[in-house]
Specification:
two-stranded parallel ribbon; 62% helix; elongated; 4 helices; mainly alpha; 2 strands; 6% strand
Length: 106
């Protein structure tokens, strides 16, 4: 074990840290570009609300039905509903958005 640690430390000292730092510095620009892409995509679809919740909630549960009602009302007011495609609260919000006249986008 001691030898492995020693070998790892030795390799780290031999590494070209200037090159590593330069590569890491450019990473921030890649991350910023992803944020810009995301904001531009969201700007095209207008005002939206994200709804997430338990996948274990079933139709008939008070929280499922509440999510349907809230998403329906928000869609009627012109908001887009963004949720996962899974069951439970996300399914309920998708159902409510459809009942409220929202458009399905993938």
């Amino acid at each position: 074990m001691e030898k492995r640690i020693h070998d790892t430390v030795k390799k780290s000292k031999q590494r070209n840290w200037t090159e590593s730092k330069a590569h890491s510095s450019w990473q921030i620009f890649k991350i910023m570009a992803e944020f810009v892409d995301g904001f531009e995509a969201l700007a095209k679809i207008g005002p939206c609300i994200s709804i997430f919740g338990s996948a274990r909630v079933k139709p008939g549960n008070k929280y499922y039905e509440l999510a349907v009602q809230i998403a329906k009302r928000l869609a009627e007011e012109g908001f887009g509903i963004i949720s996962g495609g899974g069951p439970g609260i996300m399914e309920a919000s998708n159902k409510g958005a459809q009942l409220g006249g929202g458009n399905l986008r993938e």
